[in-house]
Predict the structure.
Amino acid sequence: MKTGPLLITMGDAAGIGPEIVLRAFLQGRARDCVVVGDSAVMQRAAHRLQPLGVPIALLDEPADIAAVPPGALPLLRPDGLPAGLAELPWGQVDARCGAAAAECIRAAVALVREGRACGIVTAPIHKEALAAAGVPYPGHTEMLQALAAGEDGVLLPVRMMLANEELRVVLVTIHVALRRAIELISFDAVLQTLRIAHASVPGWRGGPPRIAVAGLNPHAGEGGLFGDEELRIIAPAIEAARAEGIAAAGPFPPDTVFMRARRRPGYEEPFDLVVAMTHDHGLIPVKYLGVEHGVNVTLGLPFVRTSPDHGTAFDIAGQGIADASSLIAAIDTARAMAAGAA
């Protein structure tokens, strides 16, 4: 059981992040959370949802949430945020937004690592804005991994899991070119993914998660006819994982395995999650089922981190029409994980 409130970073100030955070708060789904962000940015988003805006309570530390008046948004403003964020145009890449988003993430990680918060939910950031600000990470996962490193600088092995009410998928490789992703698939990478999934997602059905492993090639290689990665790499890693007591099976053809792990009425699925080799192999099935309630979970970190399953949606930013369902699902998932009940 983790202590302290849940932190929500505001995301890119020019995107829908601030709006969906406010919408979740106004719906009563985030009132026990503390926003890490800029008060003017949050107030600008609030005015898109209701004419009088929302009172904002500036906190010195997360524990101060106990004294926040009803109806006020608890907010921590990190040092070092660029000035004038609320004057920047909606829906445009800006280095200042990237810098602010990164600063909010750094502050949230510091607070949770100090034990002053129970976990982090991150609103969407824009990778181009992050790069424009000189932040040397392609996304949340890589930045969080670096911030979680020990004093020796050694990076913890982490993996991305995308989950919704019907399907959970953990990825071996993530934000790299497909050609490079195939090169990165190794015995050690697959085995490490299975270990992380096994250790990070406990308690389903009263036991360890039952993991289906998707192959890389069509028909899982068809005995080597369509590629031999299954024979050389994936199957041996599964056997090694099973020898450690991990409930892994496969490799299965990647075009059908997701059906076997999909939860739906009247069907007793034999698997709790799927391990997929590449980003799109694994995420297309999850996102096809609907991003409205999808949650991105970073497994392997020493703290809880979730996020909504969508981006900054610059095309609708500032219009007051963004759907907060995925963020709310991320908040609920983070609460459950922090309580040890995920």
